[in-house]
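TonB-dependent receptor: C-alpha cells wanted.
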Amino acid sequence: MRDNFKLNALSAAVLGAMFSTPLYAQETIEQEAVNLEEVVVTGFAQSIEKAVDAKRLADTISDSIFAEDVGKSTDQNIADALSRVTGVSVTEESGEGARITVRGTSPSQNIISINGVELTGGLGGSGDDARSDNSVDLSSFSADILSSIDVVKTAAADQNEGSLGANIELNTLRPLSLNERRLIGSAEGRYNEYRGSSDYRISGSYADKFLDDSFGVVFTLTADKNSIREDRIQNAWEEGYYEIGDKTLSAGGANRTARDINGNEIRVGLAAENESEVSVAADGNGEYFGVLGKQGTYFSTSSNERERTTANLGLQYQPTDTTDIQLDFTYTKQKVTDQFISLNLGYGGASPQAEDQITPANSPTNFVTEWNTVDVENRTLLRSYGRGHQGSTNRFEGERDLTTNVVSLRVEQDLTDSLTMAFRAGYSKTEDELLDGKGITTATWGTVTVGDLPDASVDVDAVGYDCTAGTCSYNTGSSFATFDPAYAAVTDVNTRFNPYDLQANHVGNVTWRTNFQTDTNSNINLDFDWEVDKFYFTTLEFGAKYSTREKDVQTQNENLDTGVVLIDRDSGDPAYVTQGMQNIKLGQFVDSAAFPYDDFLDGLDVDRNQAWVNGWPLADVDKAITLLSGQDPNTVGRSLRDDGTRNIATDTMAAYFKANFEFMDGRLTGNAGLRYVRDETEATGYGAASFARQNWMFDAQELFVERELANTSKGACPNEPWAFADENGNPVDGDDLNANGTKYFLFNPTNADSFNGCWDWRLTHAYVANNPDTYPVDANGNWRFLDVDGNPNYEVNRIFAMDYNGATPTVIQNDGLPASIYDPMGFDPNLWLSDRNLLPTVATNSEHFRHFNTQGLIYAYGDRTTSFTGPLGNDPIAQTRSASVYDSVTHNLLLPSLTLNFQINDDMIVRGAVSRTMTRPQADDLNPSLSITEQVWDPQDQAESGNTQLKLLTSDNFDLSYEWYFGDANMFSAGYFHKNIKNTPIQVYSFYHYESIRDQYDIEDLNVLIPHNNTDTALNSNCQVERSIGNFSADNDGWGLDCRDILVEGPVNADKATTDGLELGYTQMFDFMPGIWSNFGVQTNYTYQYSETSDVVTGDGRIIEPLPLPYTPQHSSNFTLFWENEKLELRLANRYNGVQLFADHAQGGIWKDATNRLDFSANYHITDKVSVSFNALNLTDETHRTYLVMNQARIGVDADGNDIFMSEDWGFNGDTYSGRTVGQWKNGRQFRLGLRAAF
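Answer:
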C-alpha cells in the first residue's frame, strides 16, 4: 500500500501545527503507519505532533484531531472537540455540543462521514417542531471509537460531494496499525451541579493482531448517562403588530392606549397638549401607531436524561502485500427521556376591554393606558397587563430513541505496480422514534371568564408583564376564586389565572406527540489511482459513485380538546370522546410530588420576588388522561394522520477525474480535477388544511350574504326558540346531554331552515342577552324603537347593516359592541331627533352578547362545517382537508477544483485553492406539501410550505493559507477564505389569502393560496372569511367579513450569499523556558467571518433586506493554556462565539448574544498504565440569550391599503436595539472524575 501525498521527505521529527484544541492521545503503542522519523513523546505534546504531521503532509487545507484518548479531555463529545477548530462553531442541545457549522454554513450543509460512509441522522428541532434536515447529531456518538478526525476545508474532485464548509471525516482505528495488543478500560463519575444529579460513563476497548499480523480486530464499547437541566424563559413575539391608539380612543376594536417609557400619555397623529403627553406619528391611515409586542411568555424547566451506547467492531485483513480489506460495524443508540414543566402567560388575542377605560367604576382612570407602556423609539410594547390576559401550566413527558447502524467495507488492491483500485461500499441507517409523548395543559376558560372579573379595574389582579425597569416582572394572580357549591359557577374572582388555584384551573388540553423518521443511505464507490510520474504529473485518479438517500418521515403533534376521539392503541378502535374538560379540576389530577427545584430561573432575567418562581402545583398527565377518558392512560392514544407524512428520496450518480502534479523538484505541488454529479429526487407528502374544531365559530359571509339575515326588507325571522331533537327525533332541551355527553345545542337545531331568507335582529343589533328588557323587540316580536310616525326605527342600537340592492351586497355599518346602548324601556323618538344624549342607556357586557351557548341568543347560527358536532362529527376529515402531493426534480452539476501547495522553505508553506462545491436542500424543504392551520386567536392563520424545485446550493470558493512551522510542535498560520454561495435557501414569510374550502370534504389538491390584497373581502372573493369567535368576550370587533390573512412560511432560493473569513492560529510550546516554565504551552486561534445574503422578494411582494448567514458569528476564538510533565497534565480552555444570526421570524431575525465558555481538565498518571482525570465544564456558568431585530417587520397599513414595513440594523452592530428578548436559558456546570487503566 502506497503512502499519501507528501511535500518532501521529512528530516524533523515533531512539527508544530495550527489546529484547534485536539482530543488527546497518550498510547504510544497506537502509532499510525505513517512514514515519519519517530521520536517518542507523550501526553498533549503527542497529540500536537500527530496533528501537525497530518496537516503538513495533507494536500488540502485541513485540520486533524487525534482521538485515541478522549476520556482525559473535557471534549468527550465529538461536536465539542470540533468546535476548537478554526472556522467551526457548535450548536448545543441540552448543554452539550450536538451539531456543527463550518465557515458560515449550516449543520445541514456539511457532510460528516465515518470510514467513508456518509452518516444519516435523526430529526432536528424540538419535539413539537421536529424537522427532517440533513444534519447529524454528533452527541449520539462516543468519540472513544475514533482514531482521528479530519476537517477538510478545501475540495478536490475525489472527495464526496455535498459539503459547502468542510468534509468532516471520522476514522476508526485500523487494527493492523498497532504494534501490540491493546486492552483499555475506563470509568467515570459525573455530577451536574445545576440539576443535582450523578451519572456515569464506562468504556472498554480491545485490539489485537493474528495470523502473522495479517488479520486484526478492534472492538470498542461505551455506555454513559448524562442528566441535564435547562431552565428557560421563552417569549413568543407576535407575528403581526399591536395597534396603539390616541389617548382619547374609546372602547372597541383592537387598539390600545398607552404611556411611553417616561410616563407620558401617547397622542397618535395629534400634537401633545401638555408636558404629560408625547406625540407620535400615525400609521394605519392616521388611526394608530404600530408596535411589536409579546404574544406570550413561557417559563420552563426541562430535566433531560440521555443514555447512550456506542459500539464499534473493526476487522482488517491483508492476505498479501497488495491487498487490504477493512470491514467496520458501528452501532449507536441514544435514549432521551424528557420531563418538561412550564408556566405560561398569554397576552395576545385579547382586545382592550371597555370596562378598563374611563367608567364609573374606574372614575377618571383609564386602566388600558396605565397597563400598557411603549418604547416609542424602538416600537416595542414593554409593559402589558389586561383583564383578558390568561395563563396556564404545562407538563410533558416523552421518550425518544435514536439508533444508527453503519457498515463500511473497503477493499484496496494493487492491480499493478502503478495502478491501485479501491472499492468501497457503505450503508447507514438512522431510526428516530418518539412514541406517544404526552402532556397536559391547564386552563381557566371553563371556569373564569373576563365577565366574571370585577367592573372596577383597580380590583382586578391582572396578568401581564413589566420590562420597563430592565429586569422583567411577570404577574400572575394571587387570589382564589369562590364557586357556588351547588352549581359550580364562580361567585367571586378577581384574576384570570392563579397557578395555585386548584378549582379554577382545569384540563385545557392534552397533547399527544408521535414522531418517526427512517433515514437510509447506501453507496458504492470505485476509485483508481495511476502513478504516471511523467510530464510533471505524479498520479492520475478517476472513479465513480452511486448512492441513494431516502427519508421516510411521520410527525404528529396534536392538542386534544373537547370532542376528540381517542383510540384503543391495540385495536385502533375508538375508545372515548373527550368531553367536559372544564369539569376536571386541577385538584383532581395534581401530582403528589413537589416542584423539583428551589432555584428555578436563578440567574435569568426575571424578578424572582414572586411566589410562582418558587414552583406551583404540578399536573399528573396520567391522572388527567384517566379522568378524561375513563381508560388506562397507556391503552389509549391518537390515530396517525396522513398530513404529517412525507418521503424524500434522492439517487445520486457521480464520476470524477483528478490529476496530481509537482514542479520545482517537489516544492510546488497540487491537483486539478473535475467531478460530475447527477441527482434525481422524488418527493411525496400530504397537503392539509386544519380548521378550528370548536363549535363557537361564526361565518358572517354565510349569515349575511348567503342567508341574507341582515336584510330588513325580508320578513322578520320567526319569534320562536330554537328546537332540538335526539337521535330518535324526540324533542329535547338544548342543555340536555346525548349519549356521548354532548349538549344538544351544539348541534344544528331542527328548525334551522326557518331561519333562512329572513331578518334577525339578534345578529344586527346590540343588547344584553340575559336581560330581555334590552331587546329591540317585545315578547310578541313587536319592534320597540319607533320613529315619530310610529314606524320601526331600525337604526337605534344597530351595529351591523348591509345594502342588498346591488348585484353584490355591501356593508354599510359594522361596529363592535358599544359600552352602552339606548334603553328600549325609556326610548323617546322625539329625543332621538333632538338630543340623543338625554335618552336613557344601559351598560352592555360582552359576556352577555354573542354567546355560543344557551346564555346567548345566536348559538344556533354557529358555523359547524369544521366542528366535531357538524355534518361529519368526530371524523378527522371534519377538521382537516388533505390531499396527497408529488413532485420530482433532476439536477446536473460540474464541480471543478484546483489546489496548489508551495513550500517556501523547510519551515513555511503557502497553500491556495479554488473550487466549486455543492450541497443539497434540507429534506423537509423539498416536501411538496402546503400545511395550513387556522389560528382563531391570532391576527392571521399560519401555513408552512415546501419546495421540491429548490435548486442545489453551489459555492465558488477561494482559499489562501500561510503556515510557518518553527521548532518542535510550534506553528503560526493565517488563512483567508471567500465563498460565493448561490441558491441559498432561506425561509421567507409571505402574506396571502386562501380559498374557502371548509365545505369541500374531498379535495384533489391544496392549491388554494390567493395573492394578498387588503381590499379583498368575502363579498368579492372566494376567500376564507375571517370567522368571528363566539362566547369569548375578547371579540369586541364587528362581524368578520374580510378575507382571512394567512402567513405562509416557506423556502425560496436567494440569489446569492457571500462569506469572507480570516483564520489565525498560534501554537507555542515553551520548552525553551527554564524549570517548570518549560512545561507550559499555549494554543489559540481566531476566526473572523462576514457573510451576507442578497435581497429576496417574498410571495406578497416584499423585499427582504440582506442578512448574514445563520450560525455565523463575526468573531470567534479559542484559547487554551496547558501545563504538563510526565505525571500531570493541566489544561484551561476557553471558547468564545460572538453575536450571530440564530433563526428567522416573521418580523425579522432572531439573534444570539455572544457566549464565553471556560473548561478545565486535569490528568494524573498514577503509573504508566493507570491515570485519573478530573474535568470541570462551563466554569463561568454561561447564560444564553436570543433577541428579535426587525427586518421588514409589518407594522401597519397605510391609507391606500398598503402594508407598512420597518427594518433595523443587524444584530452585529453595537447600536442595534437588542431589548426584545426571545429566549434565555442556562444549563449549569458539570464535573467529572474518571479512572483509566491499560492492561
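The radius of gyration is 34 Å. Residues 1-241+292-350+388-448+496-699+862-1239 form a domain with the Maltoporin; Chain A fold (CATH 2.40.170.20).

Cheers.
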